[in-house]
Structure of Acyl-CoA desaturase,Fatty acid desaturase domain:
Amino acid sequence: MGVQMRTKTEETVEEPLIENNNKESLQEPVKPEPLPKRQIIWSTAIYLTTWHVLAVICTVLYWKNVKLVTILWSLLVGFTGQFGVTAGVHRYYTHRSYKAKTPMQVILLACYSVAGQYRVTDWVHDHRLHHKFSDTDGDPHNANRGLFFSHIGWLMQRGHPEVFRRSKTIDMSDIDKDPLVQFHTKYYWFFKIGLCFVLPVLVPVYFWNESWMEAIGISGVLRFVIFTNMTFSINSLAHFWGTKPYDQRIRPVQNMALAILTTGEGWHNYHHAFPWDYRAEEYGGNMTNPTTYLLDQFAKIGWVYDRKTPSVDLVRQVANKHGDGSWQEVAEPTKSD
């Protein structure tokens, strides 16, 4: 059975929320109060800097002697965690772009634990906030504040006052009521340390006699830093360089290189135009979107269902009305379940 095409009656591209100015008096304009000084979160800044310094040191010291199988294992672990981010906290928990049965939810949470990122509730909240107020002061990683800030700097300092104010508008009731997410949150550190750091290091040591330092340095530290930065790059690079075939009014762009590195998340202009599409791309399931391919395979056994996609007419309408002219209509691919 092919993927059911669902037509939305309205465009889902959200406009930044702009409040009306108070025009009660034109005699003496009120001077706006200066924003509070941005405070660096030194514990987080030191934590993130330390990881990156360690990654460089581990590369220099251990790359020459590490076994090829350990490198391949590290890539497998990294992309497993990436699947937990892309298919899990992003497409499923944040956007609810498809439905998943309990075994699939367990897989998504386990894979996300391998990535070693922060709690599901925090990740989902920040990403919903990002979409609702994208590239404004209400966006936690506002790209208008620069590449470094949108990539990693936003984690190193207190958020803009608008972020805290807009946070109150984000509905998290579905996440708060999800028993598996709450269980994962309760034992967050156990899952993170065990699946992100302990297991990836123990396997090379005990299965093919890799040395402890090579296993820790390459499969542990370097793998974690590289794949974490892949996720960060969607907040940064995918808002700077690329085309805008679907909506040129927004910053997110289409970037094939990022799509390959992030298993399908680099088609960012499309994703912001249609955030509820489970493919995060107009045409999913190929080498530039392996996340979609895997979701389609799980759909064949019934663990993934109700995959949301826009109709071809809606995509055409949005691209012709708001795109930069680079969109080209392609025959809709046929999918079989």
Notes: The longest strand covers residues 99-100. Residues 42-243 form one domain. Residues 230 and 262 are 6 Å apart (CA to CA). Strands lie at 99-100, 304-305.
